[in-house]
UniProtKB/TrEMBL annotation:
Official protein name in the record: Probable ATP-binding protein YbiT
Keywords: ATP-binding, Coiled coil, Nucleotide-binding, Repeat
Transmembrane stretches, start-end: none
Source species of the chain: Saccharicrinis fermentans DSM 9555 = JCM 21142
Entry-linked InterPro entries: AAA+_ATPase, ABC_tran_Xtn, ABC_transporter-like_ATP-bd, ABC_transporter-like_CS, ABCF_ATPase, P-loop_NTPase
């Protein structure tokens, strides 16, 4: 579908890629892997046609549609959320207008036998067929489902896009791309601005999507759940693995061991050859052998080894100063922005040494609570810090608070104390500041670089309460692992606002869910919480009558009642699946019959007397209208079938 042939990219004498070739096949789910700076985003830009390579070719099959979501984009939209997303259906809207215009022209014409009249009829037929293929007038339901899946409420649909943050506006652009249904999705860090619920919805969408997906992500769980193939970019070359990200890491280690063995053998050969040349260079009797060995070395294809540092650089936070047994306590906490209430009468207690996650959809109050704990915004109720609690806070805007007049190295040198001063360059290197980059002024750093520098700075400050608000957004997988280990080893209390499940897994032992203006406490890790939420939602579904009204389950004793509910639920869902299948089949039969009738009428319309018969033309138009309505009905039934089958799979 998309073919990359002998691709090379150079920047000022530096070669990023050299003679790279691979194919993107229909339905491929590909993750791009490699160190920061390896060229993952550049490769996506080339695939999207945004950037041209130095040499090589990129070819696509005819009519292949590509949807590209860059990591950073400029937003120039000015309408409402709905208006902006509706632009995804530009072709559909144009077709609707053209069909309306053509029908209007047909109504005015009386020259039924003319060729131009027949041409109009054919144009209406062709455009109606294309309109039905694109979803017809049923696109509104697709917009609603997509926006809700990405975390928007119905009330948000009519709000101006300018009222939303950059992260939410990124979701609007993502919704547009999803609704355009491209043949190939190119996604650069798509989860950076999504919460856990939206990521899970997005995962299901991509897993079930019929097209191809090529993505760059530092969310390991996201990669594992979607990708079936991993293309690693390393030292200007690519290595193609038919495996998900975690399996790719295992296979890469095996390849590296083989590569190192071959490298050591080659180095031994080179060393022995050079010794022979040096020893017999000036002996006439060995001149032929010496020249032969010299030519052998010149022709040798030297094995290069990736300079990826496998050494386990282990950074620890300074020892946490002693504090009281209660770190944080909130009572009757409420917060409103004007008439919009975010949190209402919340109570919570976080004890010393606990590591907790704040989880919930964006806008439910996670960051607001973090800022209230820091006393950055006003609220009602009380939040009390425990005895001698000292906070280290990483905010989403932490990068803006750095001193722009000093260098990267000076920024860290100011806060580093003790033995860690000897490891400053190693620590900066782990967070992608190496070589001359440590001498760059903060003022010239990108947003991502500033975020990473702020994280390094936080790693060195002696505190006993860490509050981390989306700390992993601009970190690669290795940097995240480094930070995660440091937080795990930290002796103090930790509060993490994050949507990164892989980062939270094994790190937190309690989850606070922000929902419906409340904080609900869940004991256990992040995957236990997610599994429990799935069970809770199923339980809620079990207690729903077919008409949607909740009923109270009778208490027949624990597990037996749960089994009964599960059986009844399975029975109900199976009934829904069967009914939906029948409805879809019924619609498909009607559509097939209507299409046959229209084809026959098309044939008969070639006869002049039929084309000039108003009754004949009216019947032809009526059949097209019936076909359009039946297609809409089929889409509705198919959506109901998809939803019922998804619920059935969850139970299975």
């Amino acid at each position: 579908m998309v073919s990359v042939n002998q691709l090379s990219v150079e920047f000022g004498g530096f070669t990023l890629f050299k003679d790279v070739s691979f194919l993107v096949n229909p339905k491929d789910k590909i993750g791009l892997a490699g160190k920061n700076g390896a060229g993952k985003s550049t490769l996506l830009k080339i695939l999207a046609g945004v950037q041209t390579p130095t040499s090589g070719t990129l070819s696509c099959a005819k009519d292949v549609k590509i949807g590209y979501l860059p990591q950073h984009m400029k937003h120039d939209d000015t309408g409402t959320v709905w208006d902006e997303v509706e632009k995804a259906f530009g072709e559909l809207k144009t077709l609707e207008k053209e069909i309306d215009y053509l029908n209007e022209q047909l109504g005015k014409r009386t020259d039924y036998e003319s060729q131009s009249y027949l041409d109009l009829i054919h144009q209406v037929s062709d455009k109606s067929e294309r309109l039905n293929m694109l979803g017809g007038a049923n696109y509104a339901s697709g917009i609603e489902v997509t926006l809700k899946g990405l975390g928007f409420e119905r009330d948000d649909f009519t709000r101006l896009t300018s009222e939303f943050s950059g992260g939410w506006r990124m979701r609007i652009q993502l919704a547009k791309i999803l609704l355009q249904k491209p043949d190939v999705f190119l996604l650069d860090e798509p989860t950076n601005h999504l919460d856990i619920e939206s990521i899970q919805w997005f995962e299901e969408f991509l897993k079930n999507y019929s097209g191809a997906v090529v993505l760059v992500s530092h969310d390991r769980a996201f990669l594992d759940n979607i990708t079936k193939r991993t293309i690693e970019i390393q030292m200007g070359k690519i290595y193609d693995y038919k495996a998900s990200y975690t399996r790719y890491l295992e296979l890469r280690e095996e390849r590296k061991e083989q590569q190192m063995a071959a490298y050591r053998n080659q180095q031994k050969l080179i060393e022995d050859t050079e010794k022979f040349i040096e020893r017999f260079r000036y002996q006439a009797t060995k001149a032929v052998q010496v020249q032969s060995r010299i030519k052998q070395l010149e022709k040798l294809d030297r094995i290069e080894v990736d300079e990826f540092d496998k050494s386990a650089l282990r950074i620890k936070f300074p020892p946490a100063p002693h504090a009281g047994s209660i770190t944080l306590e909130g009572k009757h906490v409420s917060k409103s922005y004007g008439e919009h209430e975010v949190l209402s009468d919340v109570d919570f207690t976080i004890e010393r040494g606990e590591k907790v996650a704040f989880i919930g959809r964006n806008g439910e109050g996670k960051t607001t609570m973090a800022r209230m704990i820091m006393n950055e915004i006003s609220f009602t109720g009380s939040i009390k810090l425990g005895h001698q609690v000292k906070i280290g806070y990483f905010a989403q805007n932490q990068a803006d608070l750095l001193d722009e007049s000093v260098s990267v190295l000076e920024t860290i040198d100011r806060v580093a104390v003790g033995d860690v001063r000897l490891k400053i360059r190693d620590l900066l290197g782990a967070f992608m500041f190496s070589g001359e980059a440590v001498d760059k002024k903060v003022s010239v750093l990108s947003g991502g670089e500033r975020t990473r520098l702020a994280m390094v700075k936080l790693l060195l400050e002696p505190v006993n309460l860490l509050i981390l608000d989306e700390p992993t957004n601009h970190l690669d997988i290795r940097s995240k692992e480094l930070l995660k280990q440091a937080v795990k080893d930290f002796e103090g209390t930790v509060v993490v606002v994050s949507h990164d499940r892989e980062f939270l897994d094994g790190l937190v032992d309690k989850v606070y869910e922000f929902r419906h203006k409340k904080m609900k406490e869940h004991l256990g890790g992040i995957y236990e919480f997610l599994e429990r939420k799935k069970m809770e939602s199923l339980k809620e579904m079990e207690l729903q009558k077919p008409n949607g009204k909740a009923v109270k389950a009778k208490d027949n004793g624990g597990e037996n009642q749960g089994a009964k509910l599960s059986y009844e639920q399975r029975k109900e869902i199976s009934r829904r699946v069967k009914k939906a299948q029948q409805q879809v089949e019924k619609c498909e039969k009607k559509i097939a019959q209507l299409e046959e009738n229209i084809v026959e009428l098309d044939r008969l319309m070639q006869i002049p007397q039929n084309a000039s018969d108003p009754e004949f033309v009216r019947k032809y138009q009526e059949l097209n209208v019936l076909l359009e309505k039946e297609m809409e009905q089929w889409e509705t039934c198919q959506q109901e079938l998809d939803e019922a089958e998804l619920e059935k799979r969850k139970l299975d």
